[in-house]
Amino acid sequence: MLKEFLEDDSIKNQWPKKIYHLIHQRGPITKNDLLLLTKTKQTTLNRFMDDLVYSNVIVECGYGESSGGRPPVLYKVNEKAAYIIGIDISRIQTKIVLVNLAYHTIEQTSFAMTEKETPSIVFAKMKQIITKWITEYNIAWNQLLGIGVGTVGPVQREEGIIVKPEAFLAPRWENVHVARQLHEYFPVKIVVDNGANSAVVAEYSQYPSYENILYVIGGYGIRCGVICNGQLLHSKLGDSSAYGHIIVHAGDTPTTKGKKGSLSHFATFGAMVEEWKQTVNEETDVTFSDLLYELKRGNPSVIKIVEKAAYYYAIGIANMVNVLHPELVVLHGHLISESNWYYQEVVKQAKSHLYIEDKSLITFSKGTFGADAIAIGAAIQAFQSYFV
């Protein structure tokens, strides 16, 4: 079975695993292309490939272009050989996906994170949903490669713990042992990381030609994931929200949530709502949904507030780009999704603050997976953990 093959870290299995991983990353692919990538002998590669085909972990999937003789056989992984589960725990909702080895979604569901969604309630719902899928699809434990979790940080990745997140509506989310609690229900590998890191991993799987990617999630906080030279960049403190503390307006006094002149102070949903309250009536009970509604209606005062937020958001993104040198910048968040004007304004302002002359060298995008990026990326991280 595939899981047993991937768990085998013996010296004897190193090359077969490497070949399988290359086929997963590059497939459909020919033996000749694999020879160039692995620099092994033809007979050695043939032996490994025959074993992989016999084990049904890779399959033939057609023919490549002929260079004069018989067209070469193409190979890809058997995407039905196993399953992976990805989970996105955010301040607003928890999303769960079941994917195959091609990272195609088979099932997905989500539920709101209200004042009642304490960790015990959330884990009970996860157990119910995942158990239902395992039963419906008749998934044996050796067919479930693992569960990946992308969550709000800070996170202790090795231990799989959410440390002290901000802005969860429900209590008791400090020092939550995510990996341990899931493992009590499901005897499989559990991988936990910041959601922004999971999201950038998902995008990298779709754009392997980009070796440097910046993924920015704007919402009630600002979280970033970074791929640098093909590697995921992890912060020492496990906090992808630290990017939101970039100073974009120096000289303001500190607050309990960081510097008053920080990116988060100007560009988060809470910052926009607070400014709108001061504009309209400080006692008015308004939400970001109300602000978004007024933005779509063309309310001039709201447009001015959001335009200011876009300006500072763009400065923060430009600072990151100028330091990290990404080839691709993916912007994600509810406001990005709901307002193309806002997205275009952020991109325009960010480009105007880049120091490189040729702005075409950097691609801005809303991403491939949208709201599913974190959950799918977490599933990908669970799969990739077999090759670390």
Summarize the structure in words.
By secondary structure, the protein is α/β, with parallel strands linked by helices. It contains 14 helices and 17 strands. The chain has a 5-stranded mixed β-sheet with strand order 5-4-3-6-10. It has a 5-stranded mixed β-sheet with strand order 13-12-11-16-17, with helices on both faces. The longest helix has 25 residues, at 300-324. The radius of gyration is 23 Å and the shape is globular.
Residue runs with pLDDT of under 50 for 5 or more positions: 253-258
Query: Major sheet: size, sense and barrel closure?
Result: 5 strands, mixed
Q: What is the domain tally?
A: 3
**CATH level 3 topology of the largest domain:** Nucleotidyltransferase, domain 5
**Which CATH architecture of the largest domain is right?**
2-Layer Sandwich
Strand % is: 15-25%
Shape: globular
Q: Name the CATH homologous superfamily of the largest domain.
A: ATPase, nucleotide binding domain
For the termini, the CA-CA separation is 20 Å
**Helix/strand structural class:** alpha/beta
- Helix fraction, binned, reads 40-55%
- Helix tally equals 14
Write out the strand line-up for the largest beta sheet, numbering strands in chain order: 5-4-3-6-10
CATH class of the largest domain: Alpha Beta
Radius of gyration: 23 Å
Rounded mean pLDDT score: 91
Number of strands: 17
